[in-house]
Every structure is written in C-alpha cells, then in structure tokens.
Specification:
Layout lengths: L1 H17 L6 E7 L2 E4 L3 E15 L2 E15 L2 E7 L7 E5 L5 E7 L3 E5 L2 E4 L4 E7 L15
Parallel strand pairs: 1-3, 2-3, 3-4, 4-5, 4-6, 5-7, 6-8
Antiparallel strand pairs: 7-10, 8-9
Length: 145
C-alpha cells in the first residue's frame, strides 16, 4: 500500500510540473552539453559547439552552431551554422508551420521543418526553410527579418 501511495504522489508531482510557466534559458556559450527548456532559448555569445538543445518554443543563436543537434517547436534563428569543412550539424522545427532562418549556412547541414527536409552541399547565405503549410517552402536568398 505504501508503494501505491508513493507512486500516486510521484504522478501528481510530474503532472504539476507540466502545468508550470515556461522556463527560458539564456547563455553566452554552450559546449559539449545537453540543454532543455520549456520556454525560449537565447545563446547570446560565441555560440554552440557539439551540443544538443531542445526548446518547447524557439531557439535564437547570435553566434555559431558547430556540430550537434537543435530542436524547437516553432522557430530557430542562427547567425552561422556548421563549419566550412562540413561538420554535420542538424536543426529541426517540429511544427509544420514553423521556420528556420540561417544567415551563413555551411555545407552538410540539415534543416527540417515538419516533414520538409533540406540538406545543402555548398555554402548558402540568408537561408530560410519553412514548413509545408507555407508557400514556397524551400531555402531562399531572402533577408531575414
């Protein structure tokens, strides 16, 4: 009976955590780490190196992302993605109406919004990938807002 009570208390605790306010993460640099947030993430310094980030909202990176994997529910914006030598780096937005914007996109980077996937073989500038609910859902040379 005691085990049943403990399990019930644990389930109540977990359910209460789901209903909490979104928690945002702000960091200058993330290196060889795994970071999760229930709210927005902002990386304001040098960037992200060989790390995994997951956000239930959006991820903004003012610096570079070199190696690793980023996942967000809605939007990802990155200044520089990957390396000139082609280190594999992936970014995924889960919502079909989401968007990924990258100012400098190096070769061998994978961008995915919903089921729309795009891997490049050459360097690109001002790349935008949108989900299947947007018109013209592929990379472009447009300027990011």
């Amino acid at each position: 009976m005691r085990l049943h009570q403990l399990l019930g208390d644990y389930v109540s605790f977990v359910e209460s955590m789901v209903s909490l306010e979104p928690a945002e993460v702000k960091a200058a640099t993330v290196t060889s780490s795994s970071v999760r947030a229930t709210g927005k993430m902002a990386i304001t310094g040098a960037g992200i190196y060989a790390s995994s980030l997951e956000s239930r909202d959006s991820i903004l990176v003012n610096g570079t992302v070199r190696g690793g994997f980023l996942v967000a529910e809605n939007t990802v914006r990155i200044h520089e993605l990957g390396t000139p030598s082609g280190t594999e780096t992936s970014v995924k937005v889960l919502h079909a109406s989401g968007r990924i914007g990258v100012r400098i996109r190096h070769p061998n980077t994978l961008l995915q919004v919903g089921t729309n996937r795009n891997r490049n073989l050459v360097e690109e500038y001002n790349a935008v990938v949108k989900g299947e609910r947007h018109a013209n859902s592929n990379t472009s040379r447009r300027r990011l807002a």
